[in-house]
Automatic annotation (TrEMBL):
Pfam families: SBP_bac_3. Residues 1-22 form the signal peptide. This is ABC transporter substrate-binding protein. Keywords: Signal. Belongs to the bacterial solute-binding protein 3 family. It comes from Rouxiella chamberiensis. Residues 61-293 form the Solute-binding protein family 3/N-terminal domain.
Length: 308
């Protein structure tokens, strides 16, 4: 009966919408449905290659995080169809600066790489970390620092996960194919070389499944983008932070607007981001989604990343 009651409580938690908790986060999701616009940058627009063919003429078509994602990166507005979130806002700023309209396409994490490479999307804004491997296929213009957080159930006895030995023997929720998975696998390799117990990765299909796995005791911790987990922790009070790791461990890393390698658009995108930083619209976006802790003062093209 206790187990059933626990699962029922978790299910009730999962059924509550992000809007229902907005007052607890200091993030006004209703107000955040209103777009933040920024002026066209003549310098950025001039850097668009003369023969560049956008997927939809006059639009910047961007794959964004909504499907299987969580706030603040992507979610649907009250009409259940309009995409809002920090990544949607960043995509709009970039498009504005280029003198284009924005077309936001909700996509799964697995979809954006092929979609950008094949020309289905002009770009992706999906909390994507710059990595050495990804730079062989994509061009990047940075717009945020990358930090990762370990979160556990609020009643957990775990007090700290900050280094490789701390994950030994633990079951940790992580998304496949991400830089956070790479960090955990690198730590696990170190641990096993020292004779420590291996960790067990717990792969789930979406945020609801991750919540259920953690709250029901099937996993010990989650490891992923810190701002998303911090938002959720403040929202529900059911998790707590036990460690922060640079996204490019052991080095710092950056989140970046992602484009097909060599398509010529990255210089224009970087200039558009810098224009939004300079005029203040960029910080307005980060502030309203609680991401200003990861702000940058200028955009970089293809900087060193995870694996460099």
């Amino acid at each position: 009966m206790k187990h059933r009651a626990k699962l029922t409580a978790v299910a009730a938690l999962l059924s509550l919408s992000s809007h229902a908790f907005a007052a607890n986060t200091g993030i006004d999701l209703v107000a955040n449905e209103t777009p933040i616009d920024t002026p066209k940058s003549a310098e950025a627009a001039a850097k668009i290659p003369a023969n560049f063919k956008f997927v939809n003429p006059g639009y910047l078509t961007v794959a964004v995080a909504v499907l299987g994602s969580s706030p603040p990166f992507g979610l649907f507005a009250r009409d259940n169809k309009t995409v809002i979130g920090s990544e949607a806002d960043i995509a709009r700023l970039v498009a504005d600066g280029l003198g284009l309209k924005v077309k936001l396409v909700p996509a799964s994490w697995e979809d954006w790489p092929l979609g950008v490479s094949s020309g289905k999307y002009d770009a992706a804004a999906y909390n994507i970390t710059v990595t050495k491997e990804r730079k062989t296929k994509f061009d990047f213009a940075t717009y945020r620092q990358d930090t990762l957080g370990f979160y556990v159930k609020s009643t957990s006895n775990i007090t700290a996960i900050k280094a490789a030995p701390d994950i030994a023997g633990k079951r940790i929720i992580v998304t496949s194919g991400t830089n956070q998975e790479s960090v955990l696998l690198a730590w696990d390799k170190e641990n096993q070389a020292k004779g420590l117990k291996p960790f067990t990765p717990v792969y789930v299909t979406d945020d609801a499944a991750a919540t259920l796995a953690l709250q029901s005791g099937r996993a010990d911790a989650t490891f992923g983008p810190n701002v998303a987990a911090a938002y959720k922790s403040k929202l529900t009070g059911t998790t707590k932070l036990v460690g922060i790791v640079p996204g490019g461990w052991p080095k710092t890393a950056n989140i970046a607007f992602t484009l097909k390698k060599g398509n010529g658009l990255v210089d224009a995108v970087q200039t558009s981001i810098d224009s939004a930083i300079a005029n203040g619209s960029y910080l307005k976006v980060l502030d309203r989604w609680g991401e200003s802790v990861e702000k940058i003062d200028h955009s970089e093209i293809n900087p060193p990343g995870l694996g460099d």
